[in-house]
Design brief:
elongated; mainly alpha
C-alpha cells in the first residue's frame, strides 16, 4: 500500500514540475519565442522570400518548406530543456528542490514531460501557419497526426541530449550557444529548404549523413503518399536509440 502511495506521489510531483516548467516557458519571452513565435516567423519569412526563387512560387514551395520549418522548430524547442535545467541550477532552484519532500527524479522528469507539451505547441504552430499560407496536404487528417507524433517523438528524444548538456555545461549561455549552432547546422545542412542535388558535392555528402534529412524525408513521403514508408521506421529506431543511450546518461549525471 505504501509503495502504491509513493508511486502516486511521485507522479503528482512530476506533473507539478511539468506545470511549473510550462509556466516558465509562457512567462519567459525567449522560451516562448522558440515554441510559438519562431515557427510562424520562419514559415512566413522563408516561404515568401525563397518560394519564388526555389520553386517558382509560394504555393509550390510550401510542400518543401513546411516539413523543413517543422523540424527546425522541433530542434529549437527541444533545446529548451537544457537551457531551463541550467538556469534552475544557476539560480539555486535545484538546491531548493533537494530540500523539499518530493521525489528525487521529479524535477528532471517534469522538465522532460513539459518538453512533450512544448513540442506539441511548436508542431501545431508550424503546421497551422503552413495551412494558413495555403499549404493543403493531400492525405487525410489521420496522417497529419502521424506526422505530428513522429516530429514530437524525435524532438523529445533529442531533448534528452540537451538535458545532459544542460547538466554538464558550466553556463546557461553555453547551452544556448550549442543549441543554436546545432540547430542551424542540422537544419540548413539537410534537405529542409532546398533539394540536396542543388548543393555542392561535399555538402551533398554531409546532408545525406544528416539524421534530420531522414526525418524530413519520412514526413514528406507520409504527406505525399498517405502511407508509412521504410524511412519512417528508421526515424523511430533512431529516436529510440537516442533515448536508450542518453536517458541513462542524463539520469546518472542528474543523480551526481
Amino acid at each position: 500500500m505504501n509503495i502504491k502511495r509513493n508511486h502516486i506521489s511521485t507522479i503528482q510531483n512530476i506533473f507539478t514540475m511539468a506545470y511549473r516548467n510550462l509556466l516558465k516557458t509562457f512567462h519567459n519571452p525567449d522560451h516562448f519565442m522558440d515554441v510559438l513565435i519562431q515557427p510562424i516567423m520562419f514559415m512566413i519569412l522563408f516561404g515568401y522570400l525563397f518560394g519564388g526563387a526555389i520553386a517558382g512560387g509560394v504555393q509550390a514551395y510550401l510542400p518543401i518548406i513546411v516539413p523543413g520549418i517543422l523540424i527546425q522548430t522541433i530542434l529549437s524547442a527541444a533545446s529548451g530543456s537544457g537551457t531551463q535545467i541550467k538556469e534552475d541550477m544557476e539560480t539555486g532552484v535545484f538546491d531548493r528542490f533537494k530540500s523539499l519532500p518530493i521525489a528525487h527524479i521529479a524535477p528532471l522528469a517534469g522538465q522532460l514531460l513539459a518538453d512533450i507539451l512544448r513540442l506539441t505547441i511548436a508542431t501545431t504552430a508550424s503546421l497551422t501557419t503552413g495551412y494558413l499560407m495555403g499549404w493543403r496536404p493531400t492525405v487525410n487528417f489521420g496522417w497529419i497526426i502521424v506526422v505530428a507524433l513522429i516530429s514530437i517523438f524525435t524532438g523529445w528524444a533529442i531533448s534528452w541530449i540537451y538535458a545532459l548538456i544542460g547538466l554538464l555545461a558550466k553556463r546557461a549561455t553555453m547551452v544556448e550557444s550549442i543549441s543554436l549552432m546545432t540547430m542551424l547546422l542540422l537544419s540548413f545542412l539537410s534537405n529542409a529548404f532546398v533539394p540536396i542535388n542543388t548543393l555542392p558535392k561535399i555538402l551533398q555528402i554531409i546532408a545525406k549523413l544528416n539524421p534530420m534529412t531522414y526525418v524530413i524525408d519520412a514526413i514528406r513521403q507520409i504527406l505525399a503518399t498517405g502511407s508509412f514508408p521504410p524511412v519512417a521506421w528508421i526515424v523511430l529506431l533512431f529516436g529510440l536509440g537516442i533515448v536508450l543511450i542518453f536517458a541513462p546518461l542524463t539520469v546518472l549525471a542528474y543523480n551526481k
